Structures are given as C-alpha cells and as structure tokens.
UniProtKB/TrEMBL annotation:
This is Ankyrin. ANK repeats lie at residues 2-34, 35-67. It comes from Lojkania enalia. The lineage of its organism: Eukaryota, Fungi, Dikarya, Ascomycota, Pezizomycotina. It holds the Pfam family Ank_2. Keywords: ANK repeat, Repeat. Coiled coil: none annotated. PANTHER family: ANKYRIN REPEAT DOMAIN-CONTAINING PROTEIN 39-RELATED (PTHR24171). InterPro entries: Ankyrin_rpt, Ankyrin_rpt-contain_sf.
Amino acid sequence: GYYGNALQAASYRNHKQVVKLLLDKGADPNAQGGEYGNALQAASSGGHEQVVKLLLDKGADPNAQGRHNSNALQA
C-alpha cells in the first residue's frame, strides 16, 4: 500500500500508542517499502519527534536508505 505497512502508516500519522504496540508485538522498525521508505522516514517527514524517538529507542536505523536513496536525516 501507500505507506508500506501498518507501522509506517502509524508513524506518519503520529499515532504513538499504535507505533508502540506494533513495535512491542515485533514489528520491524527498519522494514522497507511505501512512499516514505521506512517508519523512521515517515515519522521524520511529518515532524513527529516523539514517534522518531520511540522508533530510535526500538532499533530504527537513522542511516537506513529509504525511498529515493535518502535517509531519515534527510527527510
């Protein structure tokens, strides 16, 4: 789909509790796909600092390449 997976959609929409639930249930914070490439880029592009911190705390890679060969720091 457009967001790639549920974690990316929740990250982009700033649904922190849903992001936490998905991560606690084993969602991969570095899964690739969708418009934003990965959950960290989705959250970064929306300026959702709390979700970004949560993803980083759960192992999201800030240097992971996403869509258009960019990373979360460039989002």
